Amino acid sequence: MTASFSMYATLRDRIAAREARVVTVGLGYVGLPLALTITESGFPVTGLDLNVGRVAAVNAGEQVISYFAPGRIAKARAGGRFAASADPAVIADADIVLICVPTPLSPAREPDMSYVLAAAETVAAHLRPGQLVVLESTVWPGATATVLRPILERGGLRAGADFFLGFSPEREDPGNAAFDTKSIPKVVGADDAQSRDLLDRFYSLIVARTVPVSSLATAEAVKLAENSFRTVNIALVNEMKVAMEAMGVDVWEVVAAAATKPFGYMPFYPGPGIGGDCIPVSPVYLAWRARDVGSEAPLIELAARTNDKAPDRIADRVAAELGQRGRAVKGARVLILGIAYKKNVEDTRESPALAILNRLEAMGAACDYHDPYFPVLPVTRDHPHLAGRKSVPLSQSGVASYDAILIATDHAGVDYGLVAEAASLVLDTRNILAGHRPRGTYVKI
Asked: Global pTM?
């Protein structure tokens, strides 16, 4: 099916004139940066989110994401082209609807499409002819066509004939100062030529470069390929770390030296595990879909399981190091530095640091944490029972009072020199104390 040329041409021309009205469904770590970047490119944008507190904060111009340039949200609001809303009715007035909602894992470690399904129902209730609907959430190949599209078509409108449908995988890297939404190439895919062309034209005005691909499923697979690559290599370097440590070799030095090779090698670094809504999730979606179509991805599944076990391995190592010093883990006081899933962001999704904390406390340890991004732990999706805990301040006497300090997330701005000077036992998963001279026992794990 092909949409009427007039419907296609109308939206094409509105995009070219930057008059197309855009709604981003979701104002999280994907939807909000995207909404602001589109606004800054000259389009009128409304960010839709059901969290009324989030909507109010955004409309007030508050710095709701720490790594944004100061005043970025306030400037977008002052320009008159950007607003946030909790009213789904704004979808009906939009020309382009971008769905940017989470796609986490279920408790059974399978794809959880509940947020996408809810967003699809909301969009379907307000869908009108001539709109372009784009899914940006990470899904398995075929999901846009077989899950999203049928919901959107329930009212009688048909994708490719009455409205346009595409997929463009988000590629956000929270806290990465080198790459932002505008500078990262944007993959765009659709199952009909007009939808693909409109996607390409729209995003070409937003980002530095677009990468059109032949289908929805191809675009969906791109994101899974990117993160499965990272998952496998992270599992590999953590496995090498354990093996090389047994050989008396420092894997950090090995990786640094290997990275000098100008071809055929890309450095990956050991750590306490993987977090966020991308690297732990995408490989599971890909492996699940492979099984669903009668294939398999054993290497990817093994890497995912290896990474999932990393927090337990770290916790067990803390217990072993305490034991070597005559201190049982039960009753030991452990301070965890950093509970965000990566440095310099206020994000705990799938955080290995929280998993380590849980494991240590299950073993009987008494754990505190220090994290400048989390003065108080909010309710988290993965560890809601930890809500309300408070970050402890760092001081010479405070650090010295713990049986062990575990560096789980290497935020900038933390006084690691103080830690090196005061701690009796430091276990470092990030090699952050490599340039210091710790007074006590220092173990890279």
From this structure: 0.93
